[in-house]
């Protein structure tokens, strides 16, 4: 990749960073990406996949695999505090997870494929909406036009602070946890604070749930590190001294190493809440939010990632246990051999979702070269 191309991609990254859009609202970002892709001669561009998804197809016309590379379009509802010239211009929104950089890398792959097209199969560049809410991948896969680009292999990367800049981390098997938010609403009956016996307060049951839900994996005997229940919100009644409360909310985020364990853990959490609510004379309702599938890396896909890193002389870091955070890319494991790897953002770099995070521009050519080498391994053509 030429220095001029890297400079253009850096300008693109900064432009995307200035104008973040939240999950499900990425229309302007998608239009900006389409305009960029049209400069690099794909054989086909699909738009509005799922919601705002964009896919560019480089088709050799010869038999071979369909290899999909995925990045994300959305930003986060967090106010950025950095003072870079390209900081977010939209209050309360920021590209504080690096999706702007991931998009720049994908556009870099488009530059390389335009200069040296695949000689077998197809390479598909997918810009996915709504990654942060866990809705985008499912929406894209459910779109009937996804069948036109259904891949044999799917690859993605995520930058990761705490690792040496430009280093690659990958492992076969479980890679990222499943995750889902469970909201529990307890309903009793309010009363005057001077006559609490006239009402039905959910306070004691709420307190019991706050205590027992985070300990659920341990009490069930789950292997250490295989599941996690995190209390994220709790509220009882109104902020008033004269009322004995009649309702309460408890929110937990439930995570597990695979989808089966995740489903079991959510069901058990609901059973516990029902049992305690019934004993306390309360009603109980549930709602689920932001469902992420567990990410499982296929061994064949990982072999291509490792081969690319070795050929390019990219530093490697060991990934022991799966990451407890979630990535919507895990959903693509239901339709393809998937490989997700992390790309180090620097050992002292601000962490993901922090208000001072900014994607390191030095990763743009590194990520592009890795993606291109994987594409060449599977679909041929000399690396540009």
Automatic annotation (TrEMBL):
It holds the Pfam family Peptidase_M20. NCBIfam families: amidohydrolases. The keyword Hydrolase applies. InterPro entries: Amidohydrolase (IPR017439), Bact_exopeptidase_dim_dom (IPR036264), Peptidase_M20 (IPR002933), Peptidase_M20_dimer (IPR011650). This is Amidohydrolase. It comes from Hoeflea alexandrii. Residues 181-278 form the Peptidase M20 dimerisation domain. Keywords: Hydrolase.
């Amino acid at each position: 990749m030429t220095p001029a191309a890297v400079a253009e991609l850096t300008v693109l990254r900064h432009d995307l960073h200035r104008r973040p859009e939240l999950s499900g609202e990425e229309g302007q970002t998608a239009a900006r990406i389409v305009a960029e892709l049209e400069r690099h001669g794909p054989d086909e561009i699909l738009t509005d996949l799922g919601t705002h998804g964009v896919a560019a197809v480089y088709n050799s016309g010869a038999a071979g695999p369909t290899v999909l590379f995925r990045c994300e379009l959305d930003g986060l509802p967090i106010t950025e505090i950095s003072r870079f010239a390209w900081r977010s211009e939209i209050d309360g929104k920021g590209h504080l997870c690096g999706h702007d950089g991931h998009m720049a890398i994908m556009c870099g792959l488009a530059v390389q494929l335009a200069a040296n097209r695949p000689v077998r199969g197809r390479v598909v560049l997918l810009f996915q909406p709504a990654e942060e809410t866990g809705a985008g991948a499912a929406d894209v896969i459910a779109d009937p036009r996804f069948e036109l680009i259904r891949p044999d292999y799917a690859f993605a990367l995520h930058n990761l602070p705490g690792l040496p800049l430009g280093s690659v981390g990958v492992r076969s098997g479980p890679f990222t946890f499943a995750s889902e938010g469970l909201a529990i609403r307890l309903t009793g009956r309010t009363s005057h604070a001077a006559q609490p016996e006239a009402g039905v307060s959910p306070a004691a049951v709420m307190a019991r749930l706050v205590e027992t839900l985070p300990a659920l994996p341990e009490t069930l005997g789950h292997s250490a590190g295989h599941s996690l229940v995190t209390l994220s919100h709790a509220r009882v009644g109104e902020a008033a001294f004269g009322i004995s409360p009649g309702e309460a909310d408890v929110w937990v985020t439930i995570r597990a190493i695979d989808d089966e364990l995740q489903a079991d853990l959510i069901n058990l959490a609901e059973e516990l809440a029902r049992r305690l609510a019934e004993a306390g004379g309360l009603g109980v309702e549930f709602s689920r939010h932001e469902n992420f599938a567990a990410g499982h890396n296929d061994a064949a896909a990982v072999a291509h990632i490792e081969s690319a890193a070795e050929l390019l002389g990219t530093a490697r870091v060991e990934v022991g246990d799966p990451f407890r955070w979630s990535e919507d890319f895990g959903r693509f494991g239901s339709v393809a051999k998937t490989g997700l790897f992390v790309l180090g953002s620097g050992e002292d770099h601000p962490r993901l979702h922090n208000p001072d995070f900014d994607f390191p521009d030095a990763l743009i050519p590194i990520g592009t070269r890795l993606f291109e080498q994987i594409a060449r391994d599977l679909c041929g053509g000399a690396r540009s």
